[in-house]
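Sanity check

After download, print the first record. It should look like this:
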Amino acid sequence: MSGADSADLKRAFAAASLSTSEEPAVRAERMRGEPSAGFMIGAALGAWTAAREQLDYDLKNPAAAGPPHASQGAPVDEAMEQDCREETTAFERLETRSRAQGLEPAAVLQAAAIPDPGLEDAWRVRTRQGSAPICR
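Expected structure tokens:
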């Protein structure tokens, strides 16, 4: 990965990790010009890490998923379905884009300078096992 692509990846990760969707970061980048391949990988990585964290939080705190005071029923189910869709979409984009560039998870994470040592393992587990059981 070139230095410019690596810089774009870092910048995109920082922008997209604020949302479970890469779309806000990509729209902003398109105002500057067409996003590079590195930017698109970074955007997908940022969205996936945010979506993964949101799904994990909602699984551990089901009463927090959905409207206030909703501890079970349809609102929670709908929130979990949305979490699952967002995590799946972000991960599929990350996998597709990194493979298209011939990049392994370690190379992408190194280029993004992510300090989370467990994220590479989480990526590899997600690749092998698929989505979280609740999302299947």
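If your output differs, re-run the checksum step. Summary of this record's structure: Residues 10 and 114 are 9 Å apart (CA to CA).
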